[in-house]
Amino acid sequence: MAAEKERLVLLNRANHAPRLRDDVTGATTNGYVLKWDSTNQAWYPAADGGAAETLEDDLTEQVNSERTVFTTEENFVGSSLVVYFNGARQRTGTGKEVTVLGPNSFSTQFGEAAPTGSILVATYQAAT
Question: Is the pLDDT assigned to residue 41 strictly greater than 80?
Answer without folding.
Answer: no
